[in-house]
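Pilot study result, target chain (98 residues):
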Amino acid sequence: MGRVLGGSFRMKGQKMKPEELSQKLQYQTQKEVDELQTILNKLNGMSLVLSKAMKNGVVVDKKAYNDFAQKYNDLVKAVDFDLNRAKLRQAKTFDLEK
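Predicted structure:
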């Protein structure tokens, strides 16, 4: 693992320039945002499928559906919260570059 010493990043005997560190942080935060956005999009797609199934009578056990819907909503809120946190980290990373 690396550590910051005197404004440079050291990793296994190699020095990383501040610009390289900034690029690495930008890449990591962008990757995290993209992954969370993909998860959220897939969850939203699943919600549409389940809603259509409920409306078309495919899902007949309303209690089970409602229990699932509550857990699903909690999951979406958690992913959305993580996505917003990742976006804030990304914004801070871009601000550090300036």
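One observation from the pilot: The chain has one domain: 18-97. A full batch analysis is planned for the follow-on phase.
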